[in-house]
Amino acid sequence: MPEEVKAAIDESLAKLKKEYDIEVVDRIPFHGGQRRLPDKIWRINLPVEISGKAEFLDVYMVFTNSFPFDMPAIILPDDRFRYLPHISSNTQKLCLYEDGIDYDADNIYGLIRDNLDKTKHWISFYTSRDNTDEYAREPASYWAEEYDGEDEVDDFWTLIGNIPEHTCELKGIFYVMKDDKNGKQHFEFIVAPTEESGVLDYISDLHETKEFDALFLSSFEKSVEPPFTLTGRSLVQRLKDEDDKNRLKKYINKHGGGYILFPIGTDNFAGGVHIIQQKCNRSGFRNGIITPYIALTEFDGRVKKIPRLLVSIFSDSRIAERTAGVMMEHRKFIIAGLGSVGSNLCYYLNGYNNAQFTLVDKDKLNLDNIGRHLLGFEHKHQYKVSAVSKYLKEYRPDREVLEVKTLLQEMETVQINNADSIFICTGDIMSERWLLQKMRNGEVNKPVFILWLEPYGISGIMLYVNPEDKESLERLSKSSLIGFENYCLISPDEYKDAEKLIKRDAGCNGKYAIYSGNDVTFFLSAVFPVIDQLMDSPTKSKCYRWVGNIDIAAEKGIGLVSTEYLKHMLQEIEV
Hints:
The strands form 4 sheets. An 8-stranded mixed beta sheet has the order 14-13-12-15-16-17-20-21, covered by helices on one side. Helix 10 (340-349) packs across helix 16 (517-536) and helix 13 packs antiparallel against helix 14 (470-477). A hairpin with a 5-residue loop joins strand 9 (258-263) and strand 10. It has 17 helices and 21 strands. It is globular. The two termini are 64 Å apart. By secondary structure, it is α/β, with parallel strands linked by helices.
């Protein structure tokens, strides 16, 4: 902490001592003991109003080294407040400000005064009212708290799909994950209804998993206020449907314990409990008399707290809510050619929260591709379609991604027309001509985007071809066999001496154009807003040319077409 901040804190202390009984301490009362902290701590004997009565209360203010750019912590080590809103029942730290609040960090005395005023208001306000509305507003936050010495709530749980509307069994898998921060390991649990089991299969291919069965009970009703601890008996009492009670009994007796999930008042999280294996063999009772269910509800399980779970919901609606705010229009993309341009284009298209992908490429990723490809060393020698598919599914394991390990020309026309938009990034003029011929003949009727970069990243070109624009299709189909040279920034004459523009490795297929990963990013960043607009509002066919490394063209004496341009501008050219 800077010396000037320490001085400002001491100055504030001197001012406030005229009004309050304050002392500097080095520890805080904590759960019947003392907790020593390395930070600067004040004990303030604060006049407050509790449930309408005036009294003095010891409040602790903790200044960390990041103060004043981090608010001081207010600790209330008085158990009367542990279950009120906006206080941690474990640390007993108050939450007085919203995350991301902007405040004057130079006014240290004002910050301290404001914290004290808010603390007094919080105590007066929340001790004199019914707070059930507060708990209902943020049910997951209060469910995740630890109460009365229970075990930490296990939040390493995910439910695939929306919360079930009815009681049902769920399929589950779990696997070991390592925490990157401290190296500790934990179990990650994924559950899903039968219709979402494909996601479990995908995850099982990535990890060494074990399977289990869970039970979701829809009639569970949690208490309206903390503490939210549960015992075997109280779990049964909170089930409002007799069939659910029977389902629970049958499940526990079958498995000896297990995982029970249920709603907690929000669409974004579910609650649950982990019922450990019940002890049924007890002295004084014949074998088989005490079932797991009886042990849970009648013996020590009757009063013993059950470890609770917090389950995050992974669904289309949840992802949409946390991204665009709404579910986007369903889109189906074909991306043919997963080299530098095609693979990185997938990164941009991945932002649509309701998209389906068909990936087309017959090649594997080799080390030469890595410098400007979306993927890296870990994916070498894998088929590009498989590696990019894995990348997309790492974001959304529920996403539909079709892998086609062939040439575009080998795809069925029906399959091509199933897409909403077709992106051609092959750099292969013949596959482009094949598709344009199909469009000209009326066999392919979906819009096409053809994208490529010129050597040295001197420009990037995107041809948008609308199948309804018959005149442009006619003109494009008659273009020179050299390629779409009319749209390039490099002069057509330069392409007659192709060796000037390319590099070669050994072998008959060893030629390649030079441009960097940055060039790919600049190009796609320029044209992607146009792609998004054209998918929503189609126009006539058009060419968009991004102006790139024209300085390299001048340096190497590469002739450019006669036009006005500035680096990184996007030009529109009629087709």
